[in-house]
Each structure stands twice: as C-alpha cells, then as structure tokens.
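Please decode residue identities from the backbone states below.
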C-alpha cells in the first residue's frame, strides 16, 4: 500500500488528542446586583459554597438543604427579587448551581423557564445576554450527556439571540468572549462528526471574536490549530499547513498540549518527505505526553507509520495498547491491526478485529442520521443569519438615504430616493446570489463527503462478510479433514476446532437452549457441517436410526439452524 493510503487513515486523528475543557462562561454582566455578581464569580471555583450563598440571598436555605428540594417554593422566592433584570439573573444562577451540584432534575425547571424547549423566547436587549447564557449552559448540559443534536440546537439558539439583539459594534468585551466560546463549542461538535465545512466556518468566527476578547492566552492558537485540522481532514494541505504555522506563531509558550498536537500533525507533512523525521517528531511528542490519553494518541500515530514502513512487529507494540485501552481511537487501531493479521495469517485475531470493525460500522451508520440533523440545524442557522444581515443592511441603507436626502429640495430628494432604491436592489441581488452560490458549494461538498463515507462503509461491510465466509470455509475443510483422519477422538477434535474458531459457541448454545442434551447439541453442530446420518452415527457411537430420530425431533422443536445465528 502506498504511503498516501495511510495519510487518509490519519486525517482527523490529531484533533482527538486535545482534551475537552470544562465549559467556560464569561464574567458576570454589568448592571447586576453586586451580591449576585460575587456569587457568579465564586461559582466557577466553589459551586457548593456559591449555592449556599445564593440560598442565603434568596432566604430559602432550609428548603434547599432538605432531601426533597421544593423547586416551586424556590422559584416563588426568586420572583421577590427587586428588578426584572436581577430576577432573570438570580434564576439563571440558580439553574447553573443546581446543575453543578448534581441537582439535575431540579435544574430543569429553571432552564425551561429561561429558554423554552420549542424555540427562542423573544426578550428585550436588557436581558438578552442572560437569556443567551442560559441557552449556552443548557447546551453544555446536553453535551455532557452525549446529546449532540440538542446541544447544537442550544448553542445555535445562543448565537441567534446574541446576533439578533446586538450589533457587531456591541459584541465586544465579555460579549465577544462569550461568542468565541459558543463558536468553539460548535467546532467541537462538527469536528467530532467529520463535518469539516461547518467546523471551519465556526472556527473562523471564533477566531474573529477571540481576537477582540481572548478567552485565554492559548485561545487563538487552539482555534487556529482546529481550523488547520479541518483543512487537514479535507486534504487541503496548503491551508492546513498555513494554519498550523500560524497557530505556532500565536503560542505564548510551548508548555500547552496544543504545541504537541501541532507538532504531531505536522509530522504527517514531514512523513511525505522523510519518514525518519516524522517518526522522531512523534516519538518526541509521545515522550512529553502528560497523561495516558495523550500518550495513546501519539502511539496510534507511531503504530500506523511503522506499519506502512513495513515494521509490523513494532507497529503492533504501539497499536495493541490503543485498541485495548482507548475506546475513542480503537477503530483506527483495529483497521491497521486487521491488515497486519491478514498479512500474518493470524485467523483468531483477524476475526476479532473484523468483528469489532463490523460493530463499529453499525455505530457509524447510526451516526449518519445525527450528522444529517446537525447539518440541517446549521444550514437553517446560516439562512436565518443571512436574512438578519440583509434586514440590517436594508435598514442601514434606509437610514443613510434619509440623512442624505433630507437637506435637499423635494424634487431632488425624489430623484435620489429612486436612484438609491435601484442601486440597493442590484447590490442586494448580487449579495444574495453570492450567498446562494456559497451555500450551494458547501452543500455540494457535504453531499460528496457523505457519499464517500457511504462507499467506505459498504466496502468495509463487504470485506467483513467475505472474511466471515472465508472463516467458515476454512473451518468446514478442517472438520472434514479431522473426520477423514479416522482417529478415535475425532468428535472431540471437531468440537475443539469449532471452539478455536468461534469461542464460546458451545456455551452460548447451552444458554440459548438449556433443554437440549449434550448429544443433541453435538448433532446440531455436526448438522451445521453437513454430515450425513451415517457419519454422525459413526462419530457419536450411535445407530443410524437413533441419530435419525434425534434429527427429526430437533427439526420439529427448533425449526431452524441455531448455529448459524450464534456465529453471525
């Protein structure tokens, strides 16, 4: 296999190395009650202490300490807070603190009252930021539960609220930081589902807001690295290399794991030129790994490179720990180990890896529906965002026209209005056409990517089926050879051969049909290998009539071949 073949296998790997950070939330908003702001600041370091302070503030400590929390009583007390703004703020803090202190069910009522399940509430700009923040926290909760569709919905609702209530000139400070955090969350979701175009879009948006108000000293570097990784997955090497280099330039130091991620990704480019340099780079990053998760990620790189360099023994030493200990990367490791097992003729490992990959293919097929939903959500958001931008542009054009026209006489004003309208129509038509063209390109790329994934899954399914058929043919020949050897222990050897190829099939048969005797189970196995009555009688030491009766009874009782069901 050529070196370019394994480059495709590695695309998308390095981004999995970075550990998902805990949800970050911007500092309390201006204009809030000082006590609530203090509780908000404390919440991200000591959520239990912050909850106690909030309960004292709401004068309902006893109700919350009890084993059964009176949610409705708490909500009534919140309504007593003086202003509408602080009412909303206190309710938001209550929901977040309940969630952080593992009162998930009680937190639901507060989340639902802040951001409806069926859409985005219309709120004034006074509380719009708090409403958006509630959606963000709700999305974080869904994400932690593995519900990516609802998490994505909540994050997009967050953006809708912010973009509909604040102009670009208002999205600065903590609001800009909040936008960067939200777009970063969407990058995580889309990248994990191999939706590169949406991930790149959100990454670039996150970069814009992070430049206005950095989320951390490493914020820009991490965003640039993520954008580069998406281009890497698309095999757009020039863009990927550009963003990797830029990410290194933005790094304030080399103590963060993003540095090791970038160096590992760049090793892919080096491998095309010099495999020795690539191996040295990845080995160096593996030596600097701070935990087992990062170390296994580097091992996966090393194992794949060694395999395609022809050093399968060394490759297995790196890949087998990944397969055994890292569920998130086990499928990638299994693909390479499967190839090595085929080359070495190791039937047992070959079958084990083939079975694992088959199950993984089923999981990937289920993910397609989720990817489709996520794509629909994102496309709807883009369309709505374009409509909002167009509406604002029209309003801006109208205001500009009025300012220019008013000083002039009525006749001249009428002429100017006509000209401005015509020009605006042409401009808007061109922009709409360009926006539609870009959306069509994105949709086409997503469709092509989906087709490639479908083809890969069908190819894998075919290989797995062929492997299963080949295994059965080998076992059939082995059983036939044992029978023809005329040894005294032929039956035992046949049973052992079946157990070697399909471990625990005998135990499964006992569990599925406990009413069958050992002789009946043996007859079922021999029937599976197409032995005649005379041959079965010879192996079992029974008369042909006895074997014939057993067969007839089993056919009436079971009415099917249970062995095929157990090994498939």
């Amino acid at each position: 296999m050529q070196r370019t073949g394994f480059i495709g296998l590695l695309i998308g790997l390095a981004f999995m190395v970075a550990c998902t950070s805990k949800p970050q939330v911007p500092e309390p908003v201006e204009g809030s009650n000082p006590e609530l702001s203090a509780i908000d600041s404390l919440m991200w370091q000591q959520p239990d202490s912050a909850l106690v302070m909030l309960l004292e503030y709401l004068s309902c400590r006893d109700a919350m300490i009890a084993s059964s929390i009176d949610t409705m009583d708490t909500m009534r007390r919140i309504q007593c807070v003086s202003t509408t703004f602080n009412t909303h703020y206190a309710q938001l803090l209550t929901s977040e603190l309940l969630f952080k202190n593992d009162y998930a069910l009680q937190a639901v009522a507060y989340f639902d009252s802040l951001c409806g399940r069926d859409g985005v509430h219309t709120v004034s700009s006074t509380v719009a930021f708090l409403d958006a923040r509630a959606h963000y926290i709700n999305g974080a909760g869904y994400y932690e539960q593995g519900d990516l569709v609802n998490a994505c919905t909540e994050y997009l609702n967050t953006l809708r609220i912010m973009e509909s209530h604040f102009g670009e000139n208002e999205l600065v400070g903590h609001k800009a930081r909040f936008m960067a955090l939200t777009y970063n969350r969407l990058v995580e979701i889309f990248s994990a589902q191999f939706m590169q175009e949406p991930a790149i879009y959100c990454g670039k948006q996150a970069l814009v807001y992070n430049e206005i108000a950095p989320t951390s000293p490493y914020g820009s570097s991490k965003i640039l690295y993520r954008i580069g990784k998406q281009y890497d997955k698309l095999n757009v090497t020039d863009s990927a290399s550009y963003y990797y280099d830029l990410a290194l330039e933005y790094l304030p130091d080399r103590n963060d794991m993003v540095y090791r991620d970038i160096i590992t990704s760049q090793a892919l480019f080096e491998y095309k030129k010099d495999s020795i340099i690539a191996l040295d780079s990845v080995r160096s990053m593996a030596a600097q790994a701070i935990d087992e998760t990062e170390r296994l990620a580097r091992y996966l790189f090393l194992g794949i490179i060694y395999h395609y360099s022809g050093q399968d023994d060394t490759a297995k030493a790196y890949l087998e720990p990944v397969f055994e200990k890292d569920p998130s990367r086990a499928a990638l490791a299994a693909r390479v180990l499967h190839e090595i097992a085929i080359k070495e003729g190791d039937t047992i490992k070959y079958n084990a890896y083939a079975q694992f990959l088959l199950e993984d293919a089923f999981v990937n097929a289920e993910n397609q529906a989720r990817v489709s939903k996520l794509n629909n959500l994102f496309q709807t958001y883009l369309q709505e965002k374009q409509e909002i931008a167009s509406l604002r542009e029209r309003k801006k054009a109208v205001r500009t026209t009025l300012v220019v026209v008013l000083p002039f006489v009525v006749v001249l004003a009428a002429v100017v209005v006509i000209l401005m309208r015509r020009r605006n129509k042409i401009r808007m038509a061109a922009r709409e056409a360009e926006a539609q063209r870009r959306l069509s390109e994105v949709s086409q790329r997503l469709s092509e990517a989906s087709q490639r994934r479908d083809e890969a899954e069908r190819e894998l399914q075919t290989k797995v089926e062929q492997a299963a058929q080949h295994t059965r043919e080998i076992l059939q020949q082995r059983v036939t050879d044992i029978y023809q050897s005329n040894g005294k222990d032929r039956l035992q050897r046949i049973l052992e051969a079946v157990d070697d190829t399909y471990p625990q099939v005998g135990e499964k048969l006992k569990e599925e049909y406990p009413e069958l005797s050992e002789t009946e189970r043996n007859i079922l196995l021999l029937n599976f290998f197409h032995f005649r009555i005379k041959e079965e009688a010879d192996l079992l030491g029974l008369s042909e009539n006895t074997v014939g009766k057993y067969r007839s009874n089993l056919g009436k009782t079971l009415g099917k071949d249970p062995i095929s069901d157990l090994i498939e």
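Observation: Residues 2 and 429 are 49 Å apart (CA to CA).
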